[in-house]
Amino acid sequence: MGNLSMQLLPIPSRFVCTMALSLALLLAGVAVATDAEIEASIDRGLDYLEATQQPDGSWGSAAFRGSAAVTATCTMAMIGSGNTPTEGPRARAVARAVGFLLASAGGSGLIAGREQAAHGPMYGHAFATIALAELYGETDDDAAVAEALDGARRLIERTQNDEGGWRYQPIRRDADISVTAAMLNALRALRNAGFDVSAEAVERGVAYLVRLQNADGGFRYQSSAGPSASPRTAAALFALVAAGGGNKEPVRRGFDWLDAHPVKLGTTIRLESGDGYALYGLAATAAAVWQRGDTEWKAWYPATAATLVAAQRDDGAWQDPSCPEYGTSAALTVLQMSSDLTPLYQRDRPSP
Fold first, then answer.
1. 214-229 burial, b for 16+ CB within 10 Å, e for fewer?
2. How many domains would you assign to the chain?
3. Is 105 helix (H, G, I), strand (E, B) or coil?
4. DSSP-assigned states of every residue in 329-348
5. For the segment 61-113, what is each residue's pLDDT rounded down to a tens digit?
6. 313 with 46: CB under 8 angstroms?
7. Distance separating alpha carbons of residues 136 and 149, to the nearest angstrom
8. 64 neighbors 325 (Cβ within 8 angstroms)
9. Rounded mean pLDDT of 162-178?
10. DSSP readout, 112-171?
11. Which of 8, 130, 206, 283 could form a disulfide with 333 if both were Cys (CB 3.0 to 4.6 A apart)?
12. Worst-scoring range by mean pLDDT, 138-152, 153-167, 216-230, 337-351?
């Protein structure tokens, strides 16, 4: 295993909206937000997270209070603005979150808090693994982080089912697209951090996701027949790109479908269909589109950022059917993506 050090530099301009692009969008009747407005929105969102962190270092409220999944996604939002447990203006919040995630690691390797509202602990395990891997080499107790991550890796590899996927429980039974995508991202983060990851597990996970692609190019939920949906398609696309399949035909077809069926936010931060996975899907879309390059990013980001800025609550949060802490972390993931400070999301990653 080796250490991955995050380089803390002055944060470059997060935004790729040039004056010419903004003018063109305004002339086309598309709302845009200024860089200053986006920066202020990010700061207010981070302030909200810092203020709502629980005494034990976790994030989450109502049914999601004490969730490792929500805590990990909020930690990733802090990382996206250049914070680690030892550096940055919100270092204390990140250090407390790392403490909670380490305390949530059990002897089996499973990292889980209160995950009942998420149907089971495996979302939390994947997201916690990602957050800890992103911070490995940046904590005051890297030995404890390494031990937790090695246990997390072993659990992921031994719970992969016969189809090549994962689902809500840490057992080799059924699988679905969203948990499998999260596990592939966790394996990518582990590899980035210098941990030995099973190439076979990654290949089988990729093959499972590809089998879930419908004839129209979108992705269904499980192996049985089902409709394509935007949030799950975005999640699958980023996982495939992160696993090294960014130039392959399934990814190209998936982006073609997603371009025609984008995740859309309404005034209630829900898909127009009433689905509650809009912010989840938007964060996954941002991660995937960022990997495509500047041309695609510039076409997608400005209007999306303006929508998010307009939807932010007065207290700095974004509403989500799960809890506002998760909604805020997902929105911040989108708004901060082009800072390119989070290793998992950085461009030009080496192939597995």
1. beebbbbeeeeeeebb
2. 1
3. strand
4. HHHHHHHHGGG--SGGG-SS
5. 999 999 999 999 999 999 999 999 999 999 999 999 999 999 999 999 999 99
6. no
7. 9
8. yes
9. 97
10. -SS-GGGTSSHHHHHHHHHHHHHHTTSSS-HHHHHHHHHHHHHHHHHT--TTS-B-SSSS
11. 283
12. 337-351
pLDDT, residue 16, reads: 40
3 located within any domain: no
DSSP string over 195-262: ----HHHHHHHHHHHHHTB-TTS-B-SSSS-----HHHHHHHHHHHHHTT-TTSHHHHHHHHHHHHS-
- Contact by Cβ (8 Å): 74, 120: no
Angle between helix axes 278-292 and 294-311 (nearest 10 degrees) is 150
Question: Is residue 351 a part of any domain in this protein?
Answer: no
Three-class SS of residue 32? coil
The SS3 of residue 37 is: helix
CA–CA dist 98, 84 (Å, integer): 10
> Terminus-to-terminus CA distance in the chain, angstroms?
15
Task: State the maximum Cα–Cα separation within the chain, in Å, rounded to a whole number.
Answer: 59
Least confident of 26-35, 228-237, 245-254, 283-292: 26-35
> Mean pLDDT throughout 182-195?
98
Does some domain include residue 8? no
Q: In angstroms, rounded to a whole number, what is the distance separating the alpha carbons of residues 277 and 307? A: 16
* Domain around 116: 19-345
Both tokens of residue 195?
């941990």
C-alpha distances (whole Å) from 316 to each of 36, 88, 270, 339 are: 15, 20, 18, 20
46-65 pLDDT, tens digit each: 999 999 999 999 999 999 99
Do 94 and 88 form a contact (C-beta atoms < 8 A)?
yes
Does residue 77 lie in a domain region?
yes
For the cut 90, the answer to whether the pLDDT of residue 246 exceeds it is no
CATH number at residue 92: 1.50.10.20
